[in-house]
Design brief:
The protein has 293 residues and is an alpha+beta fold. It is 63% helix and 9% strand. The N and C termini lie far apart (47 Å).
């Protein structure tokens, strides 16, 4: 219930902010007596397309902590030996990667881990108790290296930008097609009619599905890069390969939908083209073929 409440409240807040922004910019009306105002439509599409993604990225850290119940380890007082080791390991990996020390957190749940945050030097790495309890220290370190590599690669920012671009195209094209159908098929010559709204809704669903294929493809590629990054940070492919092999035999922990693509492994999708993570065996095979400097 907490996650559902957070999802609803966040999306309502984003809608309010975006609606106010569009009204301030004077582009909340894109259909005029002369037809589509393409300049206004482009601005509206960019604001909607990038606005939600950027806002979600900026609030990703507090959202992640609140939705998973993650407890951040205090560097001054880790609490126990495991927390101290976890903190020190992440800091060492971050130093090797050339980024600032992320916040390190532990949350209750089945095996999984994730990294999030809008900035490389102000990020969060969180690990589940299930992962800590089911892996050796070397395997956990490899998973931490994977998450640190995500941060060092700027994956959260890049994914946000890609999501913003495809969202912009979805919003823009759906309204252009909706206007065209409303005028040619429904023969509406004044303002916009039901044909416009129905077509926009259908097109946003169809274009959104196509856009998700693009985003999912990039997400899979960044998983390969993060696996390779972990191998470089660890100085060996073996720890990450063993960690992946172990994860392949475990039920991956479920993350909130907004962080699913950030986890070390996902549950997959109905079809491979929609999966945010490649199959475990493919990731291991890719590691076997790489050379560690």
């Amino acid at each position: 219930m907490k996650r559902i409440f957070l999802f609803v409240v966040t999306n309502l807040a984003v809608m309010v902010v975006l609606s106010a922004t569009l009204r301030i910019l004077g582009v909340d009306r894109i259909i005029t007596a002369q037809g589509i105002n393409f300049q206004a439509l482009l601005i509206l599409s960019v604001v909607i397309g990038f606005g939600g993604s950027i806002i979600s990225l900026l609030i990703s850290k507090p959202m992640a902590k609140w939705s998973t119940g993650a407890q951040v380890i205090d560097p001054a007082a880790p609490g126990d030996a495991r927390a101290a080791w976890l903190l020190e390991t992440v800091h060492q990996l971050a130093d090797r990667a050339g980024i600032g020390h992320p916040e390190v957190a532990i949350y209750e749940g089945p095996p999984n881990a994730f990294a999030t945050g809008a900035f490389k030097n102000d990020s969060l790495v969180a690990v589940s108790t299930g992962l800590l309890d089911s892996m050796t220290e070397e395997e956990v370190a490899a998973v931490l290296g994977h998450e640190v590599a995500h941060i060092a690669n700027g994956d959260m920012i890049t994914l946000t930008l890609i999501q913003g671009v495809v969202n912009t195209f979805v919003v823009f094209l759906a309204r252009v097609v909706g206007y065209f159908i409303d005028r040619t098929v429904f023969r509406n010559e004044r303002g916009v009619g039901i044909g416009y709204f129905v077509t926009v809704l259908v097109c946003e669903i169809i274009f959104g599905i196509l856009a998700s294929i693009i985003v999912a493809w990039f997400s899979r590629q960044r998983e390969y890069r993060a696996d390779a990054g972990s191998a470089q940070l660890m100085g060996s492919r073996e720890p990450m390969m063993r960690a992946l092999a172990r994860l392949g035999g475990l039920e991956p922990g479920e993350l909130p939908k907004s962080f699913e693509a950030s986890g070390i492994t996902g549950k997959g999708a109905l079809a491979a083209i929609f999966a945010s993570h490649p199959p475990i065996q493919n990731r291991i095979a890719a590691l076997q073929q790489m050379r560690v400097a």
